[in-house]
Amino acid sequence: MSAFVHTKSDLAKRLGISRRTITNHMRDDGAPATRADGRYHVEEWQAFIHERGIVDDSEDDAKNWKNELARLKCEQIQLAIDTERKELVPMGEVLAAAGHTLSAFRNALNQLAGRCAQGVVGLRDYDEIKDFIDSEIRIILNGLQEGSFLDGGTDVIGEVQPPEDVIGDEEAPFVNVAPKKKRRAKK
Length: 187
Hints:
single chain
C-alpha cells in the first residue's frame, strides 16, 4: 500500500474513521499538513490520531446511522421474542407483583401479633414460646415464598385456632415470657 492517499475519503477508509472526523481535526495544532499536490500522508495521520486518542465522531455519517438503526431493530425483535417466551416480564406486571407481595406481607405482619397471642396462651416455657413465634414467622415467610397470593389465592397465612387446652378457659394465665436477666455481682 502507498504511504499517501489523494482524498479525505481514501484517508478515512485507510484510518477506519469517517471523513467528517478527519475534517474536524485538520485544523488542530499538530495535525499533519496536506502535501502541495493535495495528498495526505497516512502514517502521519495514524500517529496523530493515536497520540490524540481521536475516535470517530461522525454521527451524521449515513452508514453509521443505518448500522445503528439495524442494531436497534434487531434489539427490538429480540426483546419481543424474549417477552413472548416469558423470559422477560413487562414492568407493569413486576410492579403489580411487588405491590401484591408487599400487601400480603403487611397483612401477614398485622395478623402476627394476634396469632402469637392466641398461640402462646397456656405456654409457660420461654423456649416453647420462642419456638412457637419462630414457627409463625416461618409460616409467613414460606407463604410469601410460595406466592399463592399472586394468583388470587388465599392470604399468606390462614386462620389461627387457639390451642385445644385453652378453648373455653376463661381465666388463662398470663406469664412473664422475657428471659431472666443475670444479676451482676456487686463489687
